[in-house]
Amino acid sequence: MTESETTTTAEALAGLRDALDRVAAAGATAEELEQKTASAEAECLDQLRNLLTPVLRYIDQPVPIYRYHSGHERHEWEETCWEQHALPLTRTTLDPDRTLTDRDYRGNYTGQVGILARDGSLRLASFSGSWSNWRGEPSRLFVAIDPAAGAAEMLAATEATLADVLHCVAAQLQDAIARAETGRRTLAVRLATVDAARALFGAR
Q: Cβ distance 13 to 5 under 8 Å?
């Protein structure tokens, strides 16, 4: 090996050592930041849960745990719901993912959604089953509702961030406000009808 080659090799080794030191430092910093961020997000989610629990009855929805369709045109979906209503936290709906196994004709249901049950507990809704677009071929959806060990575990299982949860909850709050306003207007009309009827009946 010539002197020039020796120098080049030494420089390459020095550059390699420097790169290794830098990647180790960057990796350790990123790992520490990831742990700190996950912990902070979980803490904020617990605070959000405490705020939402008192008003869940105004915004939560039924949770299907079993759905079945025979595949026949005139058959409607049969559905069994969970004993509690819940608020989806990591998606705005409780619709599962659909994977393909045969072009666009049939496939499987998959996915997990973090939910907040009406009793204030965090749960994981895990989807399984199969779907088909063939006439006469049934589709079945199963949903397992399991307790989440905590906010951090729920976020990790669903690969969601706190921002995902906030956007999801905000959208559902807007829907709940719109429903409440519609219900209020409907009841106001009904009450006006009652008042008119009372006036009419009292005048006779």
A: no
**Alpha helix (H) ranges present in 53-161?**
56-59, 151-158
136-151: pLDDT as tens digits: 899 999 999 999 889 9
Q: For residue 147, how far is the Cα from the chain centroid? A: 15
Contacts of 159 by beta carbon, 8 Å cutoff, 6+ apart: none
Q: What is the C-alpha to C-alpha distance for residues 145 and 156, in angstroms, rounded to an integer?
A: 16
The two three-digit tokens of residue 61, written as one number: 């929805």
SS (H, E, C) 136-187: CCCEEEEEEEEECCCHHHHHHHHCCCHHHHHHHHHHHHHHHHHHHHHHHHHH
Crossing angle of helices 3-52 and 162-203, in 10° steps, is 20
Amino acid letter for position 47: Q
The pLDDT tens digits of the residues spanning 3-59 come to 565 667 777 777 888 888 888 999 999 999 999 999 999 999 999 999 999 999 999
Collapse the DSSP code of 95 into the 3-class scheme (helix H, G, I; strand E, B; otherwise coil) and give the result: coil
Q: What are the residue ranges spanned by the domains of the chain?
A: 1-204
Q: What phi and psi values does residue 58 have, to the nearest 5 degrees?
A: -90, -15
CA 52 to chain centre: 15
